[in-house]
Design a protein that fits this description.
Blueprint lengths: L16 H12 L9 E5 L7 H8 L5 E8 L6 E9 L2 H11 L2 E3 L2 E7 L35
Antiparallel strand pairs: 1-3, 1-5, 2-3, 4-5
Length: about 150
């Protein structure tokens, strides 16, 4: 029995410094802060307020924004939040000190926020079927392959 391994060369070397810096600069330029400066905090109580998050997490650095996610209908907290720091080091410090700590009577989990589906190559939105029927030209060409 034969086994083969195929390997295709990458057009851009993953170790290329110019590729890394260009990619990070391009992505970070889409927002005013570095990508890793936004953290995700989960397992919050439903009564948690943005002001209490601001007060607690400001101990680790300057905060640009606190976004407590709320239900659109009831306007009640969904139990998680995003906190944007002005620097990546501050965000890492907050993760190190606040992950798996008790906050408002519950153990919270803190990690780096991942880009949402609408950013950086998420799923494309479909537009449904075409509104008019497209007419394809018929050709008498012979197909190159047989099934």
């Amino acid at each position: 029995m034969w086994a083969a391994t195929l390997s295709f060369p990458s057009p851009i070397s993953p170790n290329s410094e110019s590729h890394k810096s260009l990619d990070l600069k391009h992505r970070a330029s889409l927002v005013n802060y570095p990508l890793a400066s936004k953290i995700f905090v989960r397992n919050l109580t439903y009564s948690t307020k943005e002001s209490s998050l601001q007060r607690e997490f400001a101990n680790f650095g300057q905060i640009a924004e606190v976004k407590l996610v709320k239900d659109g209908f009831t306007k009640r907290s969904k139990g998680y939040a995003f906190i944007q720091y002005t620097s990546q080091d501050d965000a890492m410090l907050a993760i190190e000190h606040m992950d798996q700590q008790v906050f408002d009577g519950r153990v919270i989990y803190v990690e780096i926020a991942k880009p949402g589906k609408d950013r950086f190559g998420g799923y494309p939105k479909t537009s449904g079927p075409p509104s008019t029927k497209q007419h394809l030209e018929e050709t008498n060409d012979v197909a190159d392959c047989w099934y």
